[in-house]
Design brief:
Number of helices: 10
CATH superfamily of the largest domain: Aldolase class I
Structural class: alpha/beta
CATH class of the largest domain: Alpha Beta
Number of strands: 12
CATH architecture of the largest domain: Alpha-Beta Barrel
Order of helices and strands: EEEEHEHEHEHHEHEHEHHHEE
Radius of gyration: 19 Å
CATH topology of the largest domain: TIM Barrel
Number of domains: 2
Length: about 300
């Protein structure tokens, strides 16, 4: 069965085997981050509305979870900001009421957590993973390039308030962009802000595949470890994709799943092997077909050759 609003399951670096739920059109977001692996934002907005039909999303989730798949999480993520969808709370509640065995995660840039409607909508999630990349306004504007009206102070205040009220887990991600938010002054500001938020985990990340702007480059492993040590003694540098629990797609679904994965972010063959559970030779075969059809293209980066949707 082809799904419009579900993708995966995929094997992610942080969440293990995860079924993805995509609630907004491609690159509809409150930020236009310079490092975004999904590319530049094409619809920069803070407007919350029903971008895709809530009932149809619930129907797809119901049909999929009814088969009792082996999942670590049902994850609201994808290629835009999920909290922009006005029905996210209803969808989360459906999952928790009908399929309480499954944990729900929400990946968010955190821009709207200060909105009472958004915070209420997320209260039944098990895990929220927000981002905090800058505290100073200048660096926030340079990295996140938010929609008009959003400030670093607003985002930080909303995140701090949400953390006090939320009963699930919060894993806070700090994405390091060398030359932007890796100065001693900004790292110390981030450290103080994180102490006020009090997340359950702090995860330090950097560029792993092509970003929105070609000048963005990854921080070195040594730099990430140094920054993690300053932010908090328990901060962790996000590791590589898990490789032992990927779920091979059913016959006939591989091409669709591979293309859906690449549409959300560029991938190497190794990324796709770990994510989809297929052998490298099989992945290469499907990639050649998609290239010949003009649906994907290659991009050479430091970590290797990435494939991205055209």
């Amino acid at each position: 069965m082809a799904y419009r609003y579900l993708f995966g399951p995929v094997c992610s670096r942080r969440l293990g085997v995860s079924l993805g739920v995509d609630l907004v059109p491609l690159k509809t977001c409150t930020f236009n981050c310079v490092y975004c692996e999904c590319g530049r934002t094409t619809s920069l907005t803070g407007e919350r509305r029903e971008y895709v039909p809530t009932g149809q999303v619930i129907a797809e989730i119901d049909g999929y979870l009814a088969t009792i798949p082996d999942l670590d999480y049902v994850t609201f993520a994808g290629s835009g900001e999920p909290t922009l969808h006005s029905g996210i709370g209803e969808i989360i509640s459906f999952i928790k009421d009908r399929y309480p065995r499954y944990r729900v995660a929400v990946l968010t840039n955190g821009a709207l957590l200060g909105d009472p409607d958004v915070s209420t909508a997320l209260m039944r999630a098990d895990l929220v993973i927000p981002s905090l990349d800058a505290v100073s306004e200048e660096i926030f504007q340079e990295i996140s390039r938010p929609c008009p009206g959003l400030t670093a102070g607003d985002v930080l205040e909303g995140l701090t308030t949400f953390a006090r009220e939320f009963e699930g887990e919060i894993w806070l991600e700090v994405f390091i962009v060398p030359g932007q938010n890796d100065t001693e002054e900004e790292i110390l500001r981030l450290r103080d802000a994180i102490a006020a938020i009090g997340p359950d985990r702090i995860q330090v990340n950097t560029l792993d595949r092509p970003g929105a702007e070609i000048w963005v480059r990854p921080a070195s492993p040594l730099a990430l470890e140094r920054i993690a040590a300053v932010l908090c003694g328990d901060a962790e540098v996000i590791g590589a994709v898990c490789m032992d629990r990927a779920l091979p797609p059913k016959t006939g679904e591989a091409t669709d799943l591979l293309l859906a994965t690449i549409r959300r972010r560029p991938c190497t063959i190794d990324d796709l092997v770990g994510t989809l559970g297929l052998r490298p030779a099989e992945i290469s075969k499907y990639l050649r077909v998609l290239e010949a059809e003009g649906r994907i293209e290659q991009v050479k980066e430091k970590r290797g050759i990435f494939y991205r949707a055209v």
